# Entry
Amino acid sequence: MEGIELAGLLAQIQANTAIAVGLIFAAAALGTGIGFALLGGKFLEGAARQPELAGMLQVRMFIIAGLLDALSIIGVAFAALLLFANPLLGAVQGAIGG
Amino acid sequence: MYEQEFAKTVAWLLRIQAILAALSGLAFAMIGGMAWAIAALIGGAIGVFLTVLTAIRIGLALGQDPKLMVRSFYRAMALKFVLAVILFVIVAQWFAGYFVPVVSGYAATAVAYWLAMRKMAFLPLTTSETE
# Structure
């Protein structure tokens, strides 16, 4: 009986982790998708208006894109941790001795 | 002309990223010892490597047609994202015990972009505004 309860607990943690990972991926994809779409659109708009500034805009776009990417990469990195070495399972596994 | 500005900006960015990675390595050396310091430095190295790769790919498209510039920009960013995911999956899979210093080292290099943005705010305005 105790084994079934523990298995249920582990399953519950894994299920919630899967939901959390899905939310992280969705938020990262949505955020970067909207951000990059705005960035690319505004760049093309600016380049069409003043073509001589396209180079300068590209330099600035590179820096802003670095920021935009960094946060989603950190989110995805934590999602990878939850998927491959879930630290939340450690407490339960430690309690049952395995 | 903008190639030079781009090269200067990237060189500055890489310098700051290296300094921040070294600082995070130092901080983790004091917190958790040598292994954590190396892990933080590896995280910083991931950040620097991804910046170099993206900068090279974007820099090669500078001065071309804006459509091509945007295309190469998106390709560079996609490559950066995929490589970052692969590298962090490797860290999570085989070096999970060192995950926090690695991610912290990477996050430290991301701070350089904030500083670059701050620096950008003091650069000269566009030609239409200065005329």
